[in-house]
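Standup, Tuesday
Yesterday: got the pipeline producing structure tokens again.
Today: sanity-check two examples.
Blockers: none.

Example 1:
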Amino acid sequence: MAIRVGLNPLVLVAGRTAGATILLLLVMLIFSRRYLTIYPVGLAGCLLAGALNGIGSLFYYASLVRIDAGLGQLLFTLYPILVALLLYLDGRKPSTLTVLRLILSLPGIYLLTQANRRGVDLTGMAFMLVAALLYALHIPINQRVLFEAPAPTVTLYTLLAMTVVVVPASLLFTHDPFAFPPASINPLLGLTVVTFLSRLTLFAGVKLIGGVQTSLFGLAELLVTIVLAQWILGENLSMQQWAGAVILVATLVLAAVDRTPPTPYRFRGWLYWLRSPLSDASSIASEKGEN
């Protein structure tokens, strides 16, 4: 809605990210100052994840200038598979049901994004794949930090790093970064609140059920987008898209019945450096006790 009334996409992503960061910081300063504390390596992990996600969001919007939104969403929604791969490389093995849901989600995503398409821009496709990879990469990084840090803390410092990336980019790559059409203010405020809530619940989910499960639940964003697009923007679904929606709902139902807890790390993995010194000492003491 904001873009339709003339708000630049880069200004939009900068405004909603900075607004969500400020909102979360104010809430924590007033109600929960204890969440401002984080161990140094965890802070580094949050800043790294936020920077990657911020750069990914810039690639996302740059891609949408070149390719259809349907094709872009198809490519971006491959990120749960990338999350599963990255966590596997980090020493965590997904459950059999999780692998089944990953496989089942692919035709559902493909059918959901079937729409009228023009010629495909390979550069635009490459931009979207980079965005999906960077978004997927920030989830296991944050998951490592979440072993020692609460979700609000991780959310704050990750959003802060995103803001540091997207705001300068908006200032550098837009002709008038302070041009806000009056009609775009309410949609921008709404998006800011949604970003604040979604980021907070994202990391709470990662902490409780792991990165792969959370990213699979995140596929529901397609269903939410489709319903609201029909209701607010007047868009319509084809029969193929309805079929894809049914398949995706089935994967969400499987998510509800999957009670498999996150598997322990089989080896230290490439993100082991994000663990705090205290947890490392505990692990060493536990290993000595077992021996």
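Example 2:
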Amino acid sequence: MTQFAYNKKAKFDYETLDTFEAGLVLSGQEVKAIRAGQASLNGAYVTISRDGQLYLLNASIAPYKMAGPLPDYDPNRSRKVLLHKKEINFLRGKLEQSGLTLVPISLYNKHNKIKLEITLAKGKKKVDKRRTIKERDEKRQINRILRQK
């Protein structure tokens, strides 16, 4: 399993509640661009449309350099996310609760297919973010002390 893009900021800004593995509808040159490491999930999010479909928005996949000129290509276009109907209905019920959102975590390869890991998340407050930074610093200090001995 090779990881192509990772949303580091999502783990810091959101508290993850439940994760899902989903497929993506991509064109051939987008798949090649992702495998070449030209994808970014910074600022991306997932929404549910009125017809019950999931879409990935604001994910940037740069045009594949070896494909030649692509005049109509939009790197930030919305892309359809593939999940089972039962999972989509579960997510729709959860999103109706206040404060929950769907955040993409990573793009990776599984059995020669591009997969998207999305998480049902709740936004952290400033106090929670500070606590996370403090815990991370404490762990780092402990590891330094243990390595020195």
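Quick observation on example 2: The chain has a mean pLDDT of 89. The longest strand covers residues 14-24.
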